[in-house]
Amino acid sequence: MIDKNVVREIVEEWLKDKEYFLVDIEISADDKIVVEIDHADGVWIEDCVSLSRFIEERLDREEEDYELEVGSAGLGQPFKVRQQYVNFVGKDIEVLTLEGKKLQGVLKSVDGDNFTISVKEKVYLEGKKRPVMDDVDYTFAMDGVKYTKYLISFK
């Protein structure tokens, strides 16, 4: 089986001095390698091809046969690394909490391994008879939610 750390080192060598970042590497039992990269402005197919060739030049098919797939992290897929949170600050996201509650709002900030989402909710304000819509902030640890993902809008 192909060593994930070897693939990671190869990918990180290609990423050096580029604005891309590694999202994930998966290697199945039958040696299918899936590499996901991302970029603040999106991923170009030419760069996926370039990375794929770079990996193929450094892995020996004579030693171990494998299937290789290089692509982007997918816009509607859950975030896997901190940099994805950073790239989506100010954008609409969806969070599924560990308790199973879905929150939709604006990713307000990222601080270390925590992030804050601002959600519009009905709240009771002092002196008001009826609830009003207001922004309520929730802070979560990145590994303290089931998922966080970009909320695609077709407005």
Question: How do the helices and strands line up, and which of them pair or pack?
Answer:
Elements: H1 4-15, E1 21-27, E2 32-38, H2 45-58, E3 67-72, H3 82-87, E4 92-97, E5 102-111, E6 114-123, E7 132-141, E8 145-150
Parallel strand pairs: 2-3
Antiparallel strand pairs: 1-2, 4-5, 4-8, 5-6, 6-7
Helix pairs in contact: 1-2
Largest sheet: 5 strands, antiparallel
Q: H/E series, N to C?
A: HEEHEHEEEEE
**Average pLDDT metric:** 93
Distance between the termini: 46 Å
How many strands? 8
What amount of the residues lies in strands? 35-45%
Provide the helix percentage. 10-25%
Oligomer: single chain
Radius of gyration computed on alpha carbons: 20 Å
| SSE-based structural type | alpha+beta
The global form is elongated
Uncertain runs: none
Query: How many helices?
Result: 3
> In what order do the strands lie side by side in the largest sheet?
7-6-5-4-8
What does this structure look like?
Strands 7-6-5-4-8 form a five-stranded antiparallel beta sheet. Strands 1-2-3 form a three-stranded mixed beta sheet, with helices on one face. 21% of the residues lie in helices and 40% in strands. The protein contains three helices and eight strands; from the N terminus they run H-E-E-H-E-H-E-E-E-E-E. Helix 1 packs across helix 2 (45-58). The N and C termini lie far apart (46 Å). The protein has helices spanning 4-15, 45-58, 82-87; strands spanning 21-27, 32-38, 67-72, 92-97, 102-111, 114-123, 132-141, 145-150. With 155 residues, the chain is an alpha+beta fold.
